[in-house]
């Protein structure tokens, strides 16, 4: 069964879209944290479809919310009409974002969310220069890929932006590794000043950064680094975009958003993955004066459609009602402790890291 599907997959899908495992599996059903493949084998799913099935499979509250919307007969209207589910979700996200007088724009993917954030920042600042971070991942379109500091995910050098690169915050590899936290932050700030002075024309639009680099291997800079960096950005009026595609919704355990570990509020925050729990839902949040800087019409046909936002509302309510942030903190601590104990006997393991 699966072999046949593999051959058909290879015959019609591009080879740069990789499959996991020597013998790729087809997941045919799921419930809670478990999935079952086409051969009837059951798995405990630690991956969640690239960190996306955040609250598990076949959650009744989400299924019922989506079925309720389906029963209205309206799957799609476009954003040219009022969408109650979208407004309700935007109100919740605006309230939770920590950003004052927030506006929310919904998209279908994290890539598009980052693209929208970069559009807003470059429009507001009337500049196509940005700062990005080595070892980052922000998506697969030209601007998002251009801000991605990762060779394996950079399929093209074409870039609408002028990008200057900051150090990654990695404490295992690279020039700033091995420094203690305070020295690391000082060196990163010094590097930022040097990059601004030597690689830009000064009027930079924004810095885009992940609070914890996901695709780059769950690399987290010392807490507080964003705050120290933002002090310098503020001297120049440069906006901070926090890419919370992996770190949002309480998943780091300690905080609801990854940026909160740094003691700073970003100008723009992008989200995706977990909020739809599998339904295509993402977006960007920012202060009204920043978000409203776009000077032409810009909309997304599908972004925040009635089905995805019905799911998003149910997912977000579930996360809050079940205090899943606290759960992430508790389970994360158990996993870290256990993995560290295992790693102690395996010198090939350089580091065990992660949050939540
Ligand atoms: C931090 C981060 N930003 C953006 C993206 C792109 O999101 P999407 O694949 O939904 O376009 C990803 C995807 O893995 C991500 O991890």
TrEMBL record:
The keyword Transferase applies. Homotetramer. CDD domains: OAT_like (cd00610). It comes from the Bacteria. Belongs to the class-III pyridoxal-phosphate-dependent aminotransferase family. This is alanine--glyoxylate transaminase. Keywords: Aminotransferase, Pyridoxal phosphate, Transferase. GO terms for molecular function: alanine-glyoxylate transaminase activity; pyridoxal phosphate binding. Its cofactor is pyridoxal 5'-phosphate. Its EC number is 2.6.1.44.
């Amino acid at each position: 069964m699966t072999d046949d599907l593999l051959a058909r997959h290879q015959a019609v899908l591009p080879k740069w879209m990789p499959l996991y495992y020597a013998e790729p599996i087809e997941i045919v059903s799921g419930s809670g944290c478990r999935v079952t493949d086409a051969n009837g084998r059951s798995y405990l799913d630690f991956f969640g479809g690239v960190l996306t099935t955040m609250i598990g499979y076949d959650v009744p509250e989400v299924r019922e919310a989506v079925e309720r919307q389906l029963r209205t007969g309206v799957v799609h209207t476009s954003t040219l009409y009022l969408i109650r589910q979208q407004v309700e979700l935007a109100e919740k996200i605006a309230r939770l974002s920590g950003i004052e007088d927030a506006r929310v724009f919904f998209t279908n993917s994290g890539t598009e969310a980052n693209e929208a954030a970069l559009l807003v920042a470059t429009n507001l600042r009337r500049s196509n220069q940005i700062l990005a971070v080595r070892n980052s991942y922000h998506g697969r379109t030209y601007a998002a890929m251009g801000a991605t500091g990762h060779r394996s995910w950079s399929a093209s050098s074409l870039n609408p932006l002028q990008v200057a690169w900051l150090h990654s915050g990695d404490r295992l590899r690279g020039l700033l590794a091995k420094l203690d936290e305070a020295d690391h932050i000082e060196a990163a700030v010094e590097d930022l000043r040097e990059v601004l002075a030597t690689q830009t024309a000064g009027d930079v639009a924004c810095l885009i950064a992940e609070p914890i680099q996901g695709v780059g291997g769950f690399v987290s800079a010392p807490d507080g680094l964003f705050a120290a960096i933002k002090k310098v950005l503020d001297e120049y009026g440069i906006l901070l975009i926090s890419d919370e595609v992996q770190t949002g919704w309480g998943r780091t355990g300690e905080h609801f958003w990854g940026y909160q570990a740094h003691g700073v509020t970003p100008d723009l925050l992008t989200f995706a993955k977990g909020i739809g729990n599998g339904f295509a839902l993402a977006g960007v949040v920012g202060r009204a004066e920043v978000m409203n800087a776009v000077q032409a019409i810009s909309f997304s046909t599908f972004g925040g459609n009635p089905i995805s936002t019905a799911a998003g509302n149910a997912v977000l309510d579930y996360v809050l009602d079940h205090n899943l942030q606290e759960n992430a903190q508790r389970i994360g601590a158990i996993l870290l402790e256990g993995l560290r104990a295992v790693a102690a006997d395996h010198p090939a393991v350089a580091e065990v890291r992660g949050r939540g």
